[in-house]
């Protein structure tokens, strides 16, 4: 509330993604509606976060995402949501979880003194394996 109409991007993106998860768990929306809801939140996240790094010369989103450590498959998911066939709901849910984790590590942990970033090696390895699986299988 201290920011008024100029909410920090990470706060705005987190709120939209959490709103999607709440709507999803409510059971009130159909699959197609959830895909559109998650899709809008994911597209806005990628666009808003990478927009700050955009220069006078247009830089590809994949390169910008790589610079801020956003998984490339999330950028590909954004591309499909924007320009292609809508993906499966499961992929949108996974994208939301990955992006919320990125926001937690990149933004929220700094706000709360890094207490949220302490992961065990097992959790970190599971995340690496899940991302590798998505990179290979997500678009089949």
TrEMBL record:
A single GO BP: maturation of LSU-rRNA
GO molecular function, one term: endonuclease activity
InterPro entries per the UniProt record, alphabetical: Las1 (IPR007174)
GO CC list: Las1 complex; preribosome, large subunit precursor
Pfam families documented for this protein: Las1 (PF04031)
Residue numbers spanned by region Disordered: 118-140
PANTHER family: RIBOSOMAL BIOGENESIS PROTEIN LAS1L (PTHR15002:SF0)
Protein name: LAS1L protein
Gene of this entry: Las1l_0
